[in-house]
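U., I forgot to send this yesterday:
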Amino acid sequence: MRGYCFCTLKSLQKYQDSALLPSMYTFSLLATAVAITSFYVVSALYKAWIDRRVLNKVPTIGGSGILSSYIGAYKFVSNARDMITEGYAKYRGAAFKIPGVSNWIVVVSGPRFIDELRKAPDDCVSFRAAAKDFLQIMYTMGPEVFYSSYHVEVVRSPLTRNLVARFPDVQDEIQSAFEEYIPQTEDWTAISALSTIRKIVSRSSNRLFVGLPLC
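Result:
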């Protein structure tokens, strides 16, 4: 009897130990997730604090407080044109900033500032870095598109030089696309402008880059 009871207690102890393993694993995952989230939040707050110090002297459209800036960012998503028009009317010939969801958008106007922006070197104002941040290229297109910029040189040199020679093909494709997607009718016809333009631009680009008959 004692041996039987001993085996039962030993088996019960093993069962309890095995039952604790999933709980310990879940707790470990939860602790790791909390640590990563905390690190991300602290990093984001520190970056926001640095950006705020740098841009503190630039006037704001849409609120510059901790909460009001997010309200302004929401307004910018749905009403960007009016906010930019308001900033241009108030600070014409100067700079102003608009809150975004994750950063500040600085808008400059006036010939002097625009000329300074045009002449600024890449180590001060980088179009590639701005495109990486705005389009999130590392996640949407992949790091190879950002670090291997062969396509930029292709567009600048051989493609630009051959645009005149390829223009008849592109023009023919545009006419064909318009006849297919926006045909002439005797009465008003409703079409989806965005999806239609996407198809026309896609077909025209493929005709330029690939050509017939593959496109």
